[in-house]
User: What shape does this take?
Amino acid sequence: MNIIELFLLGLGLSMDAFAVSVCIGLSLIKISMKKLVTVGLYFGTFQAAMPFIGYMAAIQFAGYIATYDQWLVFAILFFLGGKMIVEGIKEKQCQNKDNADSLCVDKKCSIGRQEISLSLAYMTPLAIATSIDAMAAGISIAFLQTNIFNAIILIGIVTFVMSMIGIKVGHVFGTKFKSKASIIGGIILLLIAFRGCIQL
Assistant: This one.
């Protein structure tokens, strides 16, 4: 994968963190640089760590599935992309209902209107939940023989920035961009998957 593809992969994977950051931004009474950086570091760090875990796990079994590794990459990215699109569509449908705030509960970000504490106990589960998909992407990175350190640095930076943007968006505009972010992220992953398939 080249630098542009890694950037697009990072952008696609960061959309879960972006969506949750929108939710967090909605709940914050005041936004400060400290809060932006705190959320960005939580999501960015975990989003960078998970692909490394997936990468290390994949290289242990690479020799057993070398014949099918490209198809496995396609299957993983196709699944992740499709999953994000479906979740985004469901979220969008839910937002169109009456009293959407009471009907739509984001399992990754079940917060109310009062300001939350960006504590370790609160942010760690959210960071893990939004980065699980990145672990599967790490498996793809291993089979594509991409430099893992370049990948995790870029994924971490992109997620860090997108998380901070998400807080600002949520604070100003509310949750209407959450579903769009998930759909866009899913489309990006699908495009990467199909591009790899064409090269097979």
